[in-house]
User: What shape does this take?
Amino acid sequence: MKHILFTLYECDRDLLNDRMYIENVLYETANQCGATWLNTVSHQFTPQGVTAVTLLAESHISIHTWPEKEMAVCDIFTCGSADPTVGFEFMTGKFNAGKTVHQEYTRPFDEKPTVTLRKPNYPPSTTGPSTVIITE
Assistant: This one.
């Protein structure tokens, strides 16, 4: 399983605030990645901004936009032969991003990590750690 998290900077403000354009970009991104599009859900914020998630047979694509900051925060998570890096490059171009920051992860599928659960303190402490799940 492959996961890429990325932030697009210096994007076209109008594109970042166009919900239908964003939905179309997510659909096209799924195709570019070699993924199977299932559905897209989106919301237009007032006065500006869009959040959208595309469900894939292989996982998902998400975007959250801040047109006033010319910025979008996105992720693409896939399994199988779908390639999220292609989607990252495609979305960078579709939003005319001047700068990007991204991190790629390969998530284990067959390995089962040892997980220790800790019961969190409620209400949460403002001075202590907030980690609930620790993977060893």
Notes: Helices lie at 13-16, 19-33, 84-94.
